[in-house]
Specification:
- By secondary structure, the protein is an all-alpha fold.
- The protein contains 17 helices and four strands.
- It folds into two domains: 46 residues, no CATH class; 314 residues, Orthogonal Bundle (ABC transporter involved in vitamin B12 uptake, BtuC).
- Helices cover 72% and strands 2% of the residues.
């Protein structure tokens, strides 16, 4: 912290008539040490700024309950299976988060994921096209579908709900048409897509190396950012706080690596998912495009007056949702080793939206991070696997997942009202 910044006492001594500007509350928090952080935490709770706390606490409770019911729940094999199983839904939830940040919804992601799997299977299996080209075609198809939805929403002015609901029906029919009378095309389990959910890096160095790289990258990024901010005389995290955050990340990262290595090793699916989470988080938080997305979620009219091309951003967001739906569809095809008529159906759409919302993304727009997809899908998949271990019927699983989603939406609504009352929304 710069020595030129006034302390709380100095600011008070100057009196109300002083020309000295008010001190940034974040600086005061860091001057007061641990007591300051405790006070800041209480202030955020009163203002409804809960962040990811509810979902983290909820995940701990879920794991504790299921572990008490079945000692195999937290076994390395079961946790590894949960990690791989959550990737397809998680990928699709990443795209949905971009749409939710605008305050909109996309109901077509399930059917788009089915179309993606069908495009890949028809090209790679039926027509013998190179798998890499078939994958690119499938992902490009998802992006094009999303852009079409975005065009009707942004340029024509049709409600996103109606556009994507129509897309859900249309693309489901298109998928059935692609698959033909058989309705199922098996995917080579040893091929590119087939290995997405079955390949593991068996060398223990892979998982531990990934954890080490993640921890080192976080520390360097946070340290250099703090150094840059101090040089500019703006609030920055002290080294002690950065070290504590790094230590917590290291505990989680190396703990997960140890768990993976107890079973088969680091799953390729998890590695790909984490890479996409890092990239999309960087886009949202560190680029002008990300700031435009958040701006639109706050106020469309204010964004337009600020010179943002509202239509272009909206179309691009729906194109991103289609892209991630397609990627998720390829992971689903890998998981079941086929593209079939049931792809993209069932409770998939509900789980995708639930993962984004449960993870902490607001349904009202303007608040959320792509990491919310990871937290949310962990909750949903943990519930599914925990209930399956107990032999609970599927209808009960639907009811419990729906109740969790409702509770999350209620918390989101109450939080938003609290923030408005506190002048923070």
């Amino acid at each position: 912290m710069s020595t030129d910044q006034p302390t709380l006492t100095e600011a008070a001594d100057d009196g109300p008539a002083s020309a000295t500007p008010a001190v940034d509350p974040r600086l005061l928090v860091r001057e007061q040490g641990l007591a300051g952080y405790v006070g800041e935490f209480k202030r955020k709770m009163r203002a409804g700024d809960l962040g990811s706390l509810p979902v983290v606490v909820g995940l701990i409770i879920i794991w504790t309950i299921f572990q008490s019911l079945n000692s195999n729940f937290l076994s390395a094999e079961n946790l590894n299976n949960i990690a791989v199983a959550m990737v397809a839904t998680g990928m699709m939830a990443v795209g949905i988060i971009f749409v939710l940040l605008l305050g909109e919804i996309d109901l077509s992601v399930g059917s788009v994921s089915g179309v993606s799997g069908a495009i890949f299977a028809v090209l790679a299996v039926t027509h013998g096209v190179n798998e890499w080209l078939a994958v690119l075609a499938a992902v490009a198809g998802g992006a094009a579908i999303g852009a079409i939805h975005g065009f009707f929403f942004a340029r024509i002015g049709a409600p996103a709900f109606a556009v994507t609901l129509s897309g859900l029906l249309f693309w489901s029919g298109f998928m059935l048409q692609l698959l033909g009378s058989n309705g199922t095309i098996n995917v080579d389990s040893e091929g590119l897509v087939g290995k997405l959910t079955t390949y593991y890096f068996t060398d223990v160095a892979a998982a531990y190396g990934l954890a080490a790289v993640a921890v080192a990258a976080y520390f360097l990024s946070a340290f250099l950012d703090a150094k840059r901010r101090r040089a500019a005389s703006v609030p920055a995290r002290p080294v002690g706080e950065i070290a504590l955050r790094t230590a917590l990340l290291a505990a989680v990262g190396f703990g997960a690596a140890a768990m993976f290595n107890q079973y088969k090793g680091l799953p390729l699916a998890v590695l790909v998912f984490l890479v996409f989470l890092v990239l999309t988080d960087f886009v949202l938080r560190r680029t002008a495009y990300g700031r435009k997305v958040f701006a639109l979620g706050g106020s469309v009219e204010a964004s337009r007056r600020a010179g943002i091309n509202v239509d272009a951003v909206r179309i691009s967001v729906f194109a991103l949702a289609g892209t991630f739906a397609a990627i998720g569809g390829l992971f689903w095809a890998s998981k079941i080793a086929a593209a079939n008529q049931s792809a993209g159906g069932g409770d998939l759409l509900m789980n995708v939206i639930a993962a984004a919302v449960i993870g902490g993304t607001s349904l009202f727009g303007g608040r959320g991070r792509t990491w919310n997809a990871l937290l949310g899908v962990m909750v949903i998949t943990s519930i599914q696997y925990g209930l399956a271990l107990e032999g609970i019927a599927t209808p009960i699983q639907f009811m419990i997942t729906g109740a969790v989603l409702l509770a999350t939406v209620v918390i989101d609504s109450v939080t938003r009202k609290t923030q408005k009352s506190a002048g923070r929304a």
